[in-house]
Prior knowledge:
The protein is α/β, with parallel strands linked by helices. Helix content is 33%, strand content 20%. It contains 7 helices and 11 strands. Strands 1, 2, 3, 4, 5, 6, 7, 8, 9, 10 and 11 form an 11-stranded mixed β-sheet that branches. Helix 5 links the parallel strand 5 and strand 6. The radius of gyration is 18 Å and the shape is globular.
Amino acid sequence: MYMKKLLFFVCTMLTWLCTDATAKTLVVYYSYTGNCREIVTTLTSQIQADVLEIQPAEKGLKYEANGYALGTQLLNAIKANPNDASSYPAIDPVTTSLSDYQTIIIVTPLWWSQMAANMQTYLFNYGGQMAGKNVGLIVSSASSGISGVVADCKRLVPDGKYFSENLWINHSNHSNRATLIQAWLTDINYHTVTGINETKATTTAPSRIYDLGGRLLVEEPSKGLYIKNGKKFIR
């Protein structure tokens, strides 16, 4: 059993080392309610990609409490001074190097017609490094349109090579996200644009999670690097 796990780990590492950086995709997401996390899980069942989750530095905040007081306050601070780093809420440190990727897919919630404040922080800090890279945007909302989120993204990542369409997943069609994502990938010619030609078959096999030493884990760790179903995840 140990040898099987070790062989799996070695094969996975060799795959990473042999993958051309220009043909790698990073999915960056922030999820408050869990909807965006579900979208990312579905997306990465259809494409090969690394995943980076953005986390707020201060945990346990209720952005929707008291009539959305805190969430509104954070967004208003950004809107008042969008070029000032102090206007953006703090997030956990990020160690992922964008130089390793040619395609970035951003998955974010909509907060009151704008991009979620924590995702805006990440893009404010790192959006400049996405210049010349393929950029995709997937937005989750209850019902509101996403034009404000698209505007925020283009302000924060002005020199990205955006795919021809963005994807909007709302409350009414969230359960149909697998079909929506598949259609979006086809519409934007994802495999042609990115140069990534693999297809991923749907599987019902249980998820297997390993640490970087090849040891099988019972559940996903809250922080650090781990391997799930052959893909590297970073938290």
